[in-house]
Each structure stands twice: as structure tokens, then as C-alpha cells.
Amino acid sequence: MPDIVVNAEGFSFLAITSLYIALNAIVMLGLAYMVVRARQANFKSGGKLTEARDNWVRSHGNNIEYVPMALLLMAALEFQGAGAWFLHGLGIVLTLSRIAHGYGRGIADAGNPGRMFGTLGTWVMILVAAVGVLYLVAT
Predict the structure, then answer these.
(1) What is the pTM of this model?
(2) Which of 22, 91, 109, 115 is 20 to 30 Å apart from 78, CA to CA?
């Protein structure tokens, strides 16, 4: 078995990103569960498509669209030696934003503070992470 590569802070590489991969996988499964529940409710109501089902489907889909890129950026930062606090900050913002957006989008189509703050938090996290990667690549 190969040796575990350890960074300057004593953690194996991608240990921090791995934590947020796992947490966001749980968020994704929670959203998938809500999609299944909404689809079951549609079957019970004669198969009519409902706004609630569409909201949960889009909530889950939106999560799938944004989270992979965010986690790839975190992995790139961690590989390049970004600090643990910076990575945890990004991971916490991402995870809480995706929970807020998922719930907000799932329960209401628009005008929901969870949806708004979730979107904003996700975009800010991705922007900060992307700038961080560019900075570390350039230095």
C-alpha cells in the first residue's frame, strides 16, 4: 500500500475536501428523497404534475449542477496547499448554502430567502474558490 501523503498541517491530502464531499452527498440524498416523495404524491393524485414536484426536481437538479464544480475547486485549492481554515470556510458556506437553497427552492418557486441566500452563498463560494485557485497557480 502506498504511503499517505501529508501536507504541512499534518492532514492527508484532500482530507478537508473529502469531509465536504461526504456532507454534500448527504444533502444530495436528502433532496433526492424529497423528489421521490413528491413523485409518490403525484401517483396518488392520479399522476397530475404538481408545482411541488417540479420544485423539488429543480432543487435536486440545481444542487447537481453546482456542487461538483465547487468541490473540484476545493480539491484544487487543497492540492495547492490552501489553509485549513480557508477550506473549511468554503466548505461550510457551500454546504449551508446548498441546504438553504434546496429547502427554499423545494418549498417555494420564488421569493424565498433560503433560495436567495443559498444561491448567493454558492456563487460567492465558487467565485472565491476560483480566484483562490488562480492566485495559487500564479504564485
Answers:
(1) 0.85
(2) 115
Is-contact 37 109, C-beta < 8 A? Answer: no
C-alpha cell at 25: 452527498
* Distance set, CA 54 to CA 83, 105, 107 (Å): 40, 10, 10
Residues 108/54, Cβ–Cβ less than 8 Å: no
Q: Is position 5 within any domain?
A: no
Is residue 53 predicted with pLDDT exceeding 70? yes
Domain range for 83 is 15-138
How high is the pLDDT of residue 55? 85
For the domain that residue 24 is a member of, what is the CATH number?
1.20.120.550
